[in-house]
Design a protein that fits this description.
It contains 3 helices and 10 strands, in the order E-E-E-E-H-E-E-E-E-E-E-H-H. By secondary structure, it is α+β, with helices and mostly antiparallel strands. The protein has a 3-stranded antiparallel sheet with strand order 3-9-8, with no helix packed on it. A 3-stranded antiparallel sheet has the order 4-6-5. A hairpin with a 2-residue loop joins strand 1 and strand 2. The chain is globular. The structure holds zinc ion (ZN).
Length: 153
């Protein structure tokens, strides 16, 4: 057993996110860039409790938890704890991050440059949209612009 002196840090500031912050978005809360972020950057981990995907599918049938994020057909992350800041990332049909899994962990990586103040978004996929979006459908920037165009016609 290793027995070096282990310092315990009480300073929590090093855990504070500096690249993003929770803020007010069009549809409630969202996650926003707190600095300019380059493309290809591993930005945030989607944390939570790992549950069997089989169980997650049952929960989805009742539309009971919109924070379920499937890693593969074995494991799904229940990201509903508020400590999971990635749960504030809203859907976009033209997102600026994509999800990737690495040994059972789920991370969001930027797919283009994100300017300070810009909302951080991810495409959560058709199934999520069908289950958890209201009758108005998707309200992301892309779709909102589309809807405005259609109204004008
Ligand atoms: Zn959309």
């Amino acid at each position: 057993m290793a027995k070096a002196k282990v310092r315990t840090r009480k300073d929590k500031s090093k855990n504070k996110p500096t690249l993003y912050r929770v803020g007010r978005a069009r549809t409630g809360l969202g996650l926003f860039a707190a600095a300019d972020i380059p493309s290809g950057k591993l930005l945030i981990e989607y944390t939570g409790i790992r549950i069997p995907t089989r169980q997650a599918r049952e929960i989805d049938k009742r539309r009971a938890n919109k924070y379920l994020f499937e890693i593969d057909n074995r494991f799904t992350i229940d990201g509903s704890p508020r400590s999971n800041l990635a749960r504030y990332v809203n859907h976009s049909c033209d997102p600026n991050t994509e999800a990737e899994s690495n040994r059972g962990r789920l991370m969001f990586r930027t797919v283009r440059k994100i300017a300070k103040g810009e909302e951080i978004t991810l495409d959560y996929g058709e199934e999520h949209m069908e289950l958890y979006f209201g009758p108005g459908g998707c309200l992301c920037d892309v779709c909102a612009t589309e809807k405005k165009k259609k109204k004008k016609r």
